[in-house]
Every structure is written in structure tokens, then in C-alpha cells.
């Protein structure tokens, strides 16, 4: 199942922004099949090589946008698509720009070395949530870290599994804490692309998948089977904590002590799982290369 998820790709159409075209000839659009688990930055070298002759003198600072929203380099491609686009937005048409970088809207442009470092930091966070320590990632040889990153950018599930075998990316109880999963939620209003990233709710956190755990020291022990915690239960709790709830009318205020989350749809790896789907099952099938399960949520 994991290998199948890593095979999923999104057809992408890249057009150069008119303001960056400094030649008489108009550049043709570029087409790619981009793995869902990969990152948009992997397109930059190919785009620059094929568009360089249409640009003016450098330096060129690349960034991509979708319907005027700058796209963040550190979010996997599939998550960005699930959050911002619709299934019929294929091929996914993005605009690439090499000037006017939107520093106010998102962090500075990340060269691949910085993006790799951010990926590894995310992986450390995920392994700590899963096993109670990030030591196995920190102890990886530089060559092994590079192999892991390269496997993600190529969407090579077999190479990733081999490189990540020592990391034990499965939930365990540690120091009396229940087994937990690293989950990231990105949520926005349904029906359109937000005007800025301020319109996107973001949560990165551990989600306990059982109520108890054995008292242990050091690295976590394997949990006893998958938990019954469902995707819907996890999302309902996170959205309540974020106060993304329905507001009762005056006549209902005293009758509903626990507010209900706003109606929403959740997308994981391009699919809309049933709310009762086991979170542990989703994680084992759809976790990203950085060890997190990403869920795109559209609020009604």
C-alpha cells in the first residue's frame, strides 16, 4: 500500500510569468508528472534550464504561485494540491516567477540544501513523537541522510524503506506516554484559494492513538496493535481546540456543552477517507517521507 501511495503523481503545467519574459519570443509551457510525496523545488533546475534564455540577467530567485497564492517549498506537492486545488484542476497550472519574491508571504527562498535540512528536522520531530527520541536520525551518516532525501525527491519507495529501516517509524509507548502519531493538518475555507497563508490553519502535533502506555525508559516499545482512534475523532478534537466550531444560536447555547466542529471534508493522498477510518491505518499507508501524516481539510 505504501509503495502504491508513492507511485501517485500529479500532472503539472508551468508557465513563466509575463513580467519575467524579456524576450520577443514567448516561452512555451512546461509539463511535468510530479510525485505527490516530492517537493516543488525539484522542478526548479529543469525550469531554469529551459526558461533561462527568456529571462534577463540574474540573479534569479524562483518561486511558484497558484491563483496568486505563493506556494511553500516545504509542503509536499500532493498536500498543496489537495488543499488548494480541485480534482478537475488538471493539469495543475502553476506560474513560475524569478523576480519579486514575496518575503512578506512566506520564508525566503530555500536552496535544496536548506530544504533538505528542513526535511530532516521534520523527520527528527516525527521520530521523537513516534519513539521518544530523535537520536536515530541524528546518528545517520551524511551519506545515508542524502540517500533518504534523494529517495523522497525521486519517490522511490524501495530506496526510502531501505534508507529509513533503522529509524523505526512506527508508534510506540515511551515513559508512560501512550503511542502517538505525528499529524499535520492544513485547513482552509472550502470553495476557493485563500488570499494568503494567513487564511490557512496549520497544526503540527502528536495525536495519541490509545489511552495507555507501559512505563518505559529510553526508546519506545512497539504498541500492541493498531488503535481504534479514527480520523474523524482526531480531526474533531483538533478543530475544537482551534475553536473552529459551529456557533450555536441563543436558544441552543445552554444545550450544547461540547461545541461541534464546523462541517468539513478531509483529504489524504488525494482520497477522502471515511471519518471512521483508523488513523493508524492511514498513517501506515499514507505517511509522507518526513514521517508526518498530512491531512488537507476544507471547512464548510
Automatic annotation (TrEMBL):
Q: Where is the Autophagy protein ATG5 alpha-helical bundle region domain?
A: 113-167
Q: How is this protein annotated for GO cellular component?
A: Atg12-Atg5-Atg16 complex; autophagosome; mitochondria-associated endoplasmic reticulum membrane contact site; phagophore; phagophore assembly site membrane
Please give the residue ranges the record annotates as the region Disordered: 211-230
Q: Which Pfam family, just one, is annotated for this protein?
A: ATG5_UblA
Listed GO biological process terms: autophagy of mitochondrion; cellular response to nitrogen starvation; piecemeal microautophagy of the nucleus
| Domain (Autophagy protein ATG5 UblA) ranges | 6-98
- InterPro entries in the record: Atg5, ATG5_HBR, Atg5_HR, ATG5_UblA, Atg5_UblA_dom_sf
The signal sequence is none
Q: Which Gene Ontology molecular function entries are recorded, alphabetically?
A: Atg8-family ligase activity
Describe the family membership recorded for this protein in Swiss-Prot or TrEMBL: Belongs to the ATG5 family.
Q: What is this protein called?
A: Uncharacterized protein
Organism of origin is Auxenochlorella protothecoides
Amino acid at each position: 500500500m505504501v509503495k502504491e501511495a508513492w507511485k501517485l503523481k500529479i500532472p503539472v503545467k508551468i508557465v513563466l510569468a509575463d513580467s519575467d519574459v524579456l524576450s520577443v519570443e514567448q516561452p512555451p509551457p512546461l509539463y511535468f508528472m510530479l510525485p505527490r510525496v516530492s517537493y516543488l523545488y525539484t522542478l526548479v533546475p529543469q525550469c531554469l534550464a529551459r526558461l533561462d534564455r527568456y529571462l534577463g540577467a540574474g540573479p534569479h530567485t524562483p518561486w511558484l504561485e497558484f491563483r496568486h497564492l505563493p506556494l511553500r517549498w516545504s509542503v509536499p506537492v500532493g498536500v498543496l494540491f489537495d488543499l488548494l486545488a480541485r480534482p478537475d484542476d488538471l493539469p495543475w497550472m502553476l506560474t513560475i516567477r524569478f523576480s519579486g519574491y514575496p518575503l512578506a508571504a512566506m520564508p525566503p527562498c530555500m536552496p535544496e540544501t536548506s530544504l533538505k535540512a528542513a526535511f530532516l528536522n521534520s523527520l527528527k520531530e516525527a521520530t521523537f513523537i513516534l519513539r521518544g527520541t530523535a537520536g536515530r536520525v541524528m546518528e545517520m551518516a551524511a551519506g545515508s541522510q542524502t540517500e533518504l532525501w534523494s529517495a523522497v525527491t525521486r519517490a522511490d519507495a524501495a530506496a526510502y524503506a531501505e534508507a529509513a529501516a533503522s529509524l523505526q517509524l512506527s508508534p510506540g509507548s515511551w515513559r508512560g506516554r501512550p503511542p502517538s502519531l505525528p499529524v499535520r493538518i492544513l485547513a482552509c475555507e472550502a470553495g476557493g484559494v485563500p488570499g494568503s497563508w494567513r487564511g490557512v490553519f496549520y497544526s503540527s502535533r502528536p495525536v495519541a492513538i490509545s489511552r495507555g502506555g507501559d512505563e518505559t525508559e529510553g526508546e519506545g516499545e512497539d504498541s500492541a496493535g493498531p488503535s481504534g482512534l479514527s480520523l474523524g475523532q482526531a480531526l474533531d478534537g483538533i478543530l475544537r481546540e482551534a475553536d473552529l466550531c459551529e456557533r450555536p444560536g441563543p436558544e441552543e447555547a445552554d444545550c450544547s456543552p461540547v461545541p461541534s466542529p464546523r462541517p468539513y471534508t478531509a483529504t489524504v493522498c488525494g482520497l477522502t477517507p471515511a471519518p471512521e477510518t483508523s488513523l493508524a491505518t492511514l498513517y501506515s499507508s499514507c505517511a509522507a517521507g518526513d514521517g508526518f501524516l498530512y491531512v488537507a481539510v476544507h471547512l464548510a
